[in-house]
UniProtKB/TrEMBL annotation:
Gene name, Swiss-Prot/TrEMBL: dnaA
Organism: Mangrovimonas yunxiaonensis
Entries under Gene3D superfamilies matching the protein: 1.10.1750.10, 1.10.8.60, 3.30.300.180, P-loop containing nucleotide triphosphate hydrolases (3.40.50.300)
Alphabetic keyword roster: ATP-binding, Cytoplasm, DNA replication, DNA-binding, Lipid-binding, Nucleotide-binding
Protein name: Chromosomal replication initiator protein DnaA
Xref: InterPro entries: AAA+_ATPase, Chromosome_initiator_DnaA, Chromosome_initiator_DnaA-like, Chromosome_initiator_DnaA_CS, DnaA_C, DnaA_dom, DnaA_N_dom, DnaA_N_sf
Spans annotated as Domain IV, binds dsDNA: 356-475
């Protein structure tokens, strides 16, 4: 069999896949294309300079070992950087860079003409009748990278955010979609990127807006018959940040207008940053053409912080507030509040307040009282295992039966109810729910949720199942 660039690269990928984390492999190696093989030099195509720099900084050793195994000691790796998104009629920028030769990188700035400076343009952020050329970014300067502490739970998202802030519209992370559960820092990170861009590029127009406010503005523009003004306003933004994009779900008119705005911004090298409480694959009632665009760039997940990161967050918060607290109390709070960062900071603020208002010394007893009240008042997330047990007991079957492949109607309905409540009461993705409830895929879970919704409104007995289980699972 002849040795080709693709066959060599495929063998390298097998080795790399066994030696790095699955998420890292998917993000940094799946987009790479093998281009050609000349003597002992393999040329690979990467989508941006940042991509190349990241590979060289984090994966050069594993790349070297993999390539040496395939081509011998004198193996060489050549990067071909190809920016896929074109600006106007310009050709994609291509540059060859030999591996581990950073000096070969030259900056490539693409001039984007600033069109649409229409004096009649209406800015939805000002009072009607008052013309305001300057667009306020709506950013909160307190949300910055300095107080967004890095940990295993957020490293990819934070690194991608820094890359976007360094070169908005010029990386392969466009759009950058940051997703994760409540209180994990999505809004903070989105603001931090915007704040950093404004610092580095004061001339750029950066705008942060929630999806709900965007929707309301669109509805108002339709009522006032100035939909085109609304679209044109958003088309002049250089960096558009939309928070909680899942709220566009089911709103077909808003989705349609956002689709056109997104296309215009992307084609003109402008940066789009989105946040969501779920991954694109788990979003419901969002048009497929819009979902496909969400997947063009990078989807980076924020997960619950580990113990060390929680301790760092608390120490950083105390330092910023000029408050000292014993290590054992910080450790106690971090150990007992695991759900999200917002609750973690809320508990420490509550502890400081209790101490100062009641003139009590901050000791472990006071920490226990505050944490106990805080945890009690926080809605607890039930586990998928617990949901399966409650549903199985209710229908008088064991969990193995619930998860089985049988198509008996009462078992199928029990399984669909377990999936429905797992989706409703946990932050798990559809794929994760399906995997834990009988090794099903995300499409089966989506179908189960829709079936439960339909049967609840048409079948009285089934509606009673849902009501009974809701009471049993209420937390």
């Amino acid at each position: 069999m002849s040795v080709t660039a693709q066959s060599v690269w495929n063998n390298c990928l097998k080795f790399i896949k066994d030696n790095i984390q699955p998420q890292a492999y998917k993000t940094w190696f799946e987009p790479i294309k093998a281009v050609k093989l000349t003597d002992k030099a393999l040329s690979i195509q990467v989508p941006s300079k940042f991509f190349y720099e990241w590979l060289e900084e984090h994966y050069v050793k594993v790349l070297k070992v993999a390539l040496t195994k395939e081509l011998g000691e004198n193996a060489k790796l050549v990067y071909i950087i190809k920016m896929e998104n074109t600006y106007g009629n310009k050709q994609p920028f291509t540059e060859k860079i030999p591996s581990s030769n950073r000096t070969a990188v030259k900056s490539q700035d693409v001039d984007i003409p600033f069109n649409n400076k229409n004096p009649e343009l209406k800015n939805p952020f000002v009072i009607p009748g008052i013309r305001n050329v300057k667009i306020e970014s709506q950013l909160n300067p307190n949300y910055n990278f300095e107080n967004f502490l890095e940990g295993d739970s957020n490293r990819l998202a934070r690194s991608a955010g820094l890359a976007v802030a360094a070169k908005p519209g010029g990386t392969s992370f466009n759009p950058l979609l940051i997703f994760g559960g409540v209180g994990l820092g999505k809004t903070h990170l989105a603001h931090a990127i915007g704040v950093d861009i404004k610092d580095k590029y004061p001339e750029k127009t950066v705008l942060y807006i929630s999806a709900e406010k965007f929707t309301q503005q669109y509805i108002d523009s339709v009522k006032k018959n100035n939909r085109n003004d609304f679209i044109h306003f958003y088309q002049i933004i250089d960096v558009l940040i939309i928070d909680d994009v899942q709220f566009l779900s089911g709103k077909t008119g808003t989705q349609d207008v956002f689709f056109h705005i997104f296309n215009h911004l992307h084609q003109n090298g402008k940066q789009v940053i989105l946040t969501s409480d779920k991954a694109p694959v788990d979003m419901q009632d969002i048009e497929q053409r819009l979902l496909s665009r969400f997947k063009w760039g990078l989807s980076a997940e924020l997960q619950s912080p580990d113990f060390e990161t929680r301790v760092s967050i608390l120490k950083n918060k105390l330092y910023r507030d000029g408050v000292e607290m014993p290590e054992e109390i910080i450790a106690y709070v971090a150990k007992n509040i695991k759900t999200n960062i917002r609750e973690l900071e809320g508990a420490i603020i509550s502890l400081i307040a209790q101490s100062s208002f009641n003139k009590k010394e901050v000791n472990i007893e006071l920490a226990k009282q505050v944490v106990e009240k805080f945890v009690k008042n926080t809605k607890r997330e039930v586990s998928i295992d617990y949901i399966q047990k409650v549903v199985s007991d209710y229908f008088q079957m064991d969990i193995d039966t619930l998860q089985s492949k049988t198509r008996k109607r009462h078992i199928v309905q029990a399984r669909q109810l377990a999936m429905f409540f797992a989706k409703k009461l946990t932050k798990a993705s559809l794929a994760s729910i399906g995997s834990q409830i009988g090794k099903r895929d995300h499409a089966t879970v989506l179908h189960a949720c829709k079936t439960v919704d339909n049967l609840s409104s048409t079948d009285k007995q089934f509606k009673k199942y849902v009501e009974d289980l809701s009471k049993k699972l209420s937390v």
